[in-house]
């Protein structure tokens, strides 16, 4: 406990003296203030006189006092660098005694003078608390016009207020002009205003200052007078403002820092500026400004900057160490780095050297200096013809390194006219779709020129082009077409086998295997006499033609393409007209001819019919006969057309009984062909006995392939007449004149005259007549024709095409190949076999059934060609060969296969939607739709919808904005699905890592912190650790701390990196019980703020204060009443700055008579009734306070 003893002078008198009424004023003026500009006035009207002016020594260089007028004014040019403190304080003492009053009134006024200008800096010292001030703001000029646009700010009221360590809010009202309004501590103009500096312009404002100290806090007031113009600011103006002021409370003496060398201070503590990219080196960025209240070398500052987070920034910017001007060193590129953060240091030249730190964040603004860039310069895609409308062909993508405002890309097709109008492009997504029918036969390839335009405005839009090649794949939608509806060819019957007779052609508008045409004979080739090459369409003659057998052939040809399924055309007709050739000489039905004739036959008698046949036709078969080897007066002649020999001269057996001559048959062909035969003519005598056959019936067998002239049988008849000559004729049953008979050695020799045909006639019954010229006898000859191997097997077609699914089991019958043979028996029994051994297939030798021997695989081989031979069992064996093409149909038995086991991609978290991340690719060994692959996330994992995969290209793109802080790594699962039925699919894992960008501001644990600190803690003590967290990572999560509000004057220092908050002065509870500062955490360019309440804990470190005082009272005693005070007349004027201390009062000396009654707890004083008398009394007492 501290005890203070002080004297109390007690005087009883009749008047009371009052003194030390104090006012406090704040004055703002420019360093270019004109001479005689008033600073202070003690009033007008002569009521007060200026007694004295107390001012700093350095201020006396530019102020003077007019005691007569009671005005302090500017007397010389103000030089800010010479000011030891700014603001500085001067005091005026005025004697304002009133001649009509006995009370003497002495007034002391305080003026805080703030000097403003380019070379001025604030050198604040802690000021006394204040209640009400009048602020006079002066602006002067040379008469130029000054204009302010509507909504612009004129000045901040905070800059005019005295320094206070407590939080405050201000509310002002303009009282003299409706063209202005106040908001958030600043004065704004409602409409565009202009004024001239050579004319007077004034504005008054009333403001209330509200400390944020809880309920009951004292509200302070301030009046602001703002003046623009030249000339003196008159005493009357200042007096009017002073009349608006009220007296202030007694001030609290401020505590000073222990250090005499002050640290510099940045204002503001954090700089955030922007500079456009591509500006030339040397471009001004910002001027850094720190102030140091010290004088001389201790106040001279040097500036330094050091890059934070990225050392590359050091090479791009430089600072002038003398004036703090920051400029570029190189041309900046926003796309390389868009934000540069520096630690700014200001160092004075005092001893020791002191520093101040701030942060400088330079944002490089974007200009449109990048063209869009396509992911590929040339795109290639294949599509099938006949696609549906709106089919997505492919997606083109372009990126732009500029910011989004200059990188908003739109797509268009530059050459969309003509045939390209079947395609369209989505201007936003770049998806190219079909809008018309794609027909390969019309256009088989397209070339689109696609433009990407970034829509930029500064300095203008940029564009890029890419080429899109679209190849149209063929569908088998066209059947082969024959070059002619009917082919007619004339073939001589003597044309040699294996000779080409015709070229059949057909074309198919499709492409590839769909356009490969195979030919085959569908019908009309029953005897297999023709063959058509399946590949070339050349038709060959397989076997000799015979006009006499068949004069014309009509063949139906099939043209079939190689599509899946194949298309065919069976409308092709080939007419083969066989041309007759004179290739057959006449053949006599019998040779030699023998005849007898009675010698008594009349002239003209027809003896024998000479007959020959010619297998040719027309003139080639028309015959003419003549006799040869005749003598003069020859008794016989022959009809050259009919071949009958008649008697032309009477016969005389006794003269000539036998004639032997020849006969010739000649056709009319070119060249003509002829045959000769001999005739024996016997002249018979007349007889009367019939010839008698030795057998009435003959039974014979003859093979159908017997040659012409083959002897069948010799019949014999006996005539009992002497010298009788028996002749033989076939009288009936000789169908088609297949047989002939001649007389030889008394018998009749039957021979084969024409070829036999087992299929036409299997038995002949011949009636044979034996005649002696007049009488005759008959017999039957039965000739049974036996079959011969005269025909080869014939396939129905020279080329077969069948198909089979690849998944059919082993042993499946593919097709049954059948051939026919017009023979019978063994000659017609056919055996089938393959010419070449193909292990996948086998053929049943009896049935011709072709079956699979192994499993088929379309992906290994798509087709097989088998040469199959049909052979009969005749002697000799005959055969025919056909070709079987087996097409293996694809079955969807192969799942798609990705080219990699898994895929990995990275993407920045701030990329725009639809950015390409990674591309997956899969193949399918199947064909057609079974092998067409599309990609999907369906059934897999798409990152909860954050990604999309293009179905045709497999490009994985972002679908939404990403946030690394929520999902740093995506594990996606995509599928490659074919279009088979049923569809097969394969999955693949895709890992996408999201790369961090600085998109999260630091976060304090709470918005407000309460910190308790004991007063008198040593300078440099760590008051608290301020910390914030940043969900970003790496350099994006580095945080810098600084105090941005409430640290005026500089009481605390916050370490920029660690967040340690330290005290820079002795903390005194009695001077300030609470500090409120605003701290900022910066992760450039993002910031967060928090309010820190630093509350001091009071300690008993102050002695009670008590000064000598007097109590003077006057006791008026009248007959009516007494003015003697009976209650409390006052209290001991003692105080203790320690708020927690309880004072105790007691008399030490002088009150032994108990004339004064003292309350020892409250210090209240009462007078004893013993003093109620008419005796003057003066007493001196000593009081102690503890």
TrEMBL record:
One matching Pfam family, short form?
Answer: Cadherin_CELSR2_9th
Molecular function (GO) terms listed? Answer: calcium ion binding
Identify the stretch annotated as signal peptide in this record. Answer: 1-24
Cellular component annotations (GO), alphabetically ordered: plasma membrane
Keyword line: Calcium, Disulfide bond, EGF-like domain, Glycoprotein, Membrane, Repeat, Signal, Transmembrane, Transmembrane helix
Record domain Cadherin: where? 267-374, 375-482, 483-588, 589-693, 694-795, 796-898, 899-1004, 1005-1106
UniProt keyword Protein biosynthesis, yes or no: no
Per the record, the major location class is: membrane
Q: Name one GO biological process term.
A: anatomical structure morphogenesis
Q: Which domain of life is it from?
A: Eukaryota
Keyword Repressor assigned: no
Q: Which InterPro entries match?
A: Cadherin-like_dom, Cadherin-like_sf, Cadherin_CELSR1-3_9th, Cadherin_CS
Query: What does the UniProt entry say about where the protein is found?
Result: Membrane
UniProt name for this protein: Cadherin domain-containing protein
Organism the protein comes from: Muraenolepis orangiensis (Patagonian moray cod)
